[in-house]
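Table S2 (continued). Query chain:
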Amino acid sequence: MNYGEDVPVAPMTARGKGWPCLRQFCVFMENQVGRLHELFRLIERNELRVIAMSVVDSADFSTVRLMVDDADRAREIFSLSNFNWFENDVVGVCLPDDPQPLVRVCLALMQAELNIRYTYPLLFRRGGRGAIAISVDDIDQATRILKDRGLEIITEDDLKDDDNYFF
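Corresponding output:
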């Protein structure tokens, strides 16, 4: 009996090389002196590089959204840590060399009636252009729309190639 082992799987449907999304880790922590330092020490001790970070806080707690250059390794490290965390996918897009690059990205998603939940910058540059992470309602549709509009999607493999893309 064949369970589909011999059927090729397109990169858009399987995580791995060419996966069109970026893995984001969300770490919950109390607003205490030194907690963010503890998180970054954990990351740096394990020789991971922070690619992006955003902190959203309330009176007592914070959510740190971050990306690193090796999501698989980060998952192992966070699993063994005392931090509460989860992970999810976001879309990474290189900003076009336009007078209003953010308008172009937002317009493409708005015309497709996709909601942008949040966005934050990446420490990533390709050809002198910046990049952003975007959380949207439908990642597959957003990726397709952005590509159709001529925008460049950043993959997890791009994050590992730090000699070429990070400043």
